[in-house]
Amino acid sequence: MPGMVIIGAGPGLGLSVARRFAREGLPVALVARSKDKLKTLADALTPTGVPVITLTADSTDETELRIALDTATAKFGLPEAVVYNAAIIQPDRPGELSVAAHQQAWAVNVLGAITAAAHIAPAMSRRGSGSFLITGGMPDPNPEYVSLSLGKAGVRALVTLLDKQYGPAGVHIASVTVNGPIAPGTAFDPEDIAEHYWHLHTQQRPDWSQEMMHP
User: Fold this and answer.
1) Residue 88: CATH number of its domain
2) CA triple 166-133-6, angle to 5 deg
3) Structure pTM?
4) pLDDT at 2
C-alpha cells in the first residue's frame, strides 16, 4: 500500500502528522538529518502497527533529498502524501542575520520544498492523485522573525505556483498555516494541528483548499 513521507520529521508536529496518517493504515517514511531522532520517532510509531522506514537526509541537500524520496517510493510505492515540515525557526530582526544565514534559512524553509515537489509531483500527476502539503506559518510578517516571515511568505507563494503546475492533473497542493507556537496541551497542540493535514489529504477535488489556518 502506498504510504506517506514526512520531510523534516521531528518529535512535535512531525510525529503527530505521521501518527495521524499511520492511524489510517498508511506506511510512513520519516526523513530527517539526525539518525538518533529518527530512531526515537520510529519507536514512537511502533504502536500504530504500520511499516515505518527512516531516511537520513538534509532538506537543503538536493541529492540526499531525492535519494530519500526514491528510497521511500521503492519501499512503499509512489506516496499518497508528502508533507514538507522542515523549517528554521529563529528570532532575528532586520539586519541581524548575515547573507549566508538568510540563504540557509531560505534553503530550508522554501528551497527544500521546491526540490521535493519537483521530484515527486510529476509522478503524482501522471498517476492523477496525491497530495503535497507544506507546513506554513507567520500569516502576519513579524519584524522579530524576519527570516521565518520571509520563508513562510515564500511557502504561500510556492503553494500557489505548484497548484497551477500540478493541480490540474489531480495533485492537491496545500499548506497548513500555524499561527503560533506549537506545544502540547495548548491551543496549538500538535495532535490537533495534525488533523488539518489529514483533512486536506482527504478533501474531494471540488472542495480543495490551498491553505488551512490554525487556529
Assistant:
1) 3.40.50.720
2) 120
3) 0.97
4) 86
